[in-house]
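Tutorial handout. Part one gives the primary structure; part two gives the three-dimensional structure as tokens.
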Amino acid sequence: MKRVFLCILPLAVAMIACKTNKQPVSSDKITVTVAELLAHPDTYVGKEVMVEGTVSHVCKKDGKKMFLFGTNPDSTVRITTGPDIAAFDVSLEGTDVMVDGIMKELRIDEAYVARMEAELTKGTRETEPAGEEKAVGSNQNEELSNVEQLRKEIKESGKGYVSDYWIENVSMTKKEGK
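Part two.
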């Protein structure tokens, strides 16, 4: 179920990403592991967190996203560029880093999914989150199927929404030795 959600989530985030819940940012930094972030992401929303891990992937298209893992390469947290960082360099892949950033949440509810579906059927969806261009030749039927999967996950959540979490990077340092 988590793998299906993680595959569908980029589509959901692609839609109306600027509608993230504005949440106050805590002034105290919290040092946390990737595993702790993934286990209880809602605990850290709006807070400044420091997390250490290995960069598993940097998006090659524009470098606006990278993925970090701790001890398990299959469990990653998404890191996005912040206002002071234009892009992550692909050469970071395989490097150990310490990321300082703000934990963000996007709540995807039925209204959000309905807007997403309307944009897909009208063909007006033109950008991905953080200004990334829409993938050329994207399959509308597959994306509409993903919309239905999101609806199912929202219903199963019992909360009326599903959340997408990520860290918006404030600063990053390479760890010595890699």
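Part three, for discussion. Residues 1-26 have pLDDT under 50 and may be disordered. The first helix runs from residue 2 to 14.
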